[in-house]
Write a structure and sequence with these properties.
Elements: H1 6-21, H2 28-63
Helix pairs in contact: 1-2
């Protein structure tokens, strides 16, 4: 089965690569802000996955 984290991981890596590419031109505060935004997006995605997992478990319990 294809890894479902792959699209998210690809976006995170691309964002980190872009931050590194712009590092010379961007102040450190902006880079930290960009990384914080990436972290927030990852946490939001994980929350969605957790909510979906809980929903699946509840549906399975109701089915049994």
């Amino acid at each position: 089965e294809e890894n479902k984290l792959s699209p998210l991981a690809d976006r995170v890596v691309a964002s980190l690569n872009e931050a590194e590419r712009l590092r010379i031109r961007k102040p450190q505060e902006e880079i930290i802000s960009d990384l914080a935004e990436i972290k927030i997006k990852c946490l939001e995605w994980l929350q969605i996955q957790a909510d979906l997992f809980i929903t699946i478990i509840k549906l399975y319990s109701d089915y049994r």
